[in-house]
Amino acid sequence: MSTPTPAEAAQSHHGAAGESVIKAGYDNRLTNTDLAPLKEQKWTWYNIFAFWMSDVHSVGGYVFAGSLFALGIAAWQVLVALVVGIVAVNILSNLVAKPSQIAGVPYPVTTRVSFGVKGANIPAIIRGAIAVVWYGIQTYLASVAFGLLALKFWPGLEPWGDVDQHGFMGLSALGWAGFLLMWVLQAFVFWNGMDTIRKFIDFCGPAVYVVMIALAGYLIAKAGWGNVSLDLSVGDGLTGWSSVTMMISAFALVVSYFSGPMLNFGDFSRYGKTFREVKKGNFWGLPVNFLFFSLLVVCTVSAAVTVIGTDADGNIITDPVHIVDKIDNTTAAVLGVLTFAIATIGINIVANFVSPAFDFSNVAPTKISWRTGGMIAAIGSVLITPWNLFNNPTAIHYTMDTLGAVIGPLFGILIADFYLVKKQKIVVDDLFTMKPEGTYWYRNGWNPVAVGSTVFASILPICVVIFGTAYQASFTWFIGAGLGMAVYWLGMKFVPTQLIYGSAPTAHTTTDIAVDAAGEPDPTPEPVIAGAAAEEAPSS
């Protein structure tokens, strides 16, 4: 290996997203302190475990888990679908985690490997837009808790909770107060940087479990074990082939529910000490945690039917905020409402704040820092008035399912490129160069195969969303991921090299420092590194 020149010397820079290493040769159009490779990767398996706990323990996660047991199939069938689905999510998350962990860079930077150093803005903007919408919706859902809490202590505020008497843009004055409070609390945690976020989720995950177990114990004790059931469905239930198809749908729903955080999981796996630590955290955070969480939810919801009854329409209440609000115990209600508000702050930050922060920063690194990118997302979440979107089932269906239909192709392309085309090898320095001879320059910074695959593989899933049934729409992620993977792999295999790379010389590494699948620097100057993938990747 040649001795680095002064121009190639690396310098450490401390940013909100962590301490990174920037070489003088890195192009500033692709680099800032938040996107550059980390100097040191410190997260253990527990930090990853806590990440998934925060991702699961939310109002949305609670309602989703409860809804699985109300699909009309037997409880054992739900459990089978749930276990198979979450194991699939665990495996897929491990696949996504590896490129970011061995290179120490966030998700949008790893997409430069397949889309090109400029083309990577396509997946970044798509994922960022989805995160903004969900950020707004989750903030709104959690803000409802503050409104209910305020009315419990000050009933005189009820007129201010009426949108017709005191409302603006479809939200009541009390609703606005709760929403802005949640907005500020989340922004405060985020603004203090990734290390603060890590500490926040490390504490919140276990803390929420303590309150959830206490809530479940309280309701079960009042209802009696005889009134607790794992079956929340109404009516006779499904049998025969209908129950099998619903099991398949439940499996698809589990995978689709995690598709967003799964796609940008590299934003967090980049901090993992080793790939083995990341895998261990995924195992405890996904199969073990989600299964226990789901069982806890269904027992709580089932017991709540006996203790607090159903809603005005006779439906089972699956929203934990409304469950605790109806409990005839002020202390328990206050503790429960605050807990689920905090839990939602956790998922919103890890799933919908950190992601667009990196994504938008990737678009213009010199102008948009990680903090700025996050605040762009936060402001955007207000402008879309998420309460209006959430309260319109048709609008949210077409908006989110159409955006979600594109997540599948992005996932498929990432996996096909890293594992099938690039054979688990990344030339880290070339992720930050605009030189035509760079490995990821492709055709003027864009890989036409990746762009074309994204468009082609998104058409069918979007058509299913628009013209298909709700059952068919639950499989859009699988359709998109499969098509994206197949089309990209075939394109890179059979499309002429000149069309992919243009008239420029065949791309080769601009540095003699490359990273192989084991995360080790390659001691040879050749850009192609031989060797099988290693089980564990050391930290940078």
TrEMBL record:
Superkingdom assignment: Bacteria
Cellular compartments per GO CC: plasma membrane
GO molecular function, one term: nucleobase transmembrane transporter activity
Residue ranges the record marks as coiled coil: none
Topological category with respect to the lipid bilayer: Multi-pass membrane protein
Region (Disordered): 518-540
InterPro entries assigned to the protein according to its UniProt record, in alphabetical order: Pur-cyt_permease, Uracil/uridine/allantoin_perm
Family note: Belongs to the purine-cytosine permease (2.A.39) family.
Protein's recorded name: Putative allantoin permease
Organism name: Gordonia namibiensis NBRC 108229
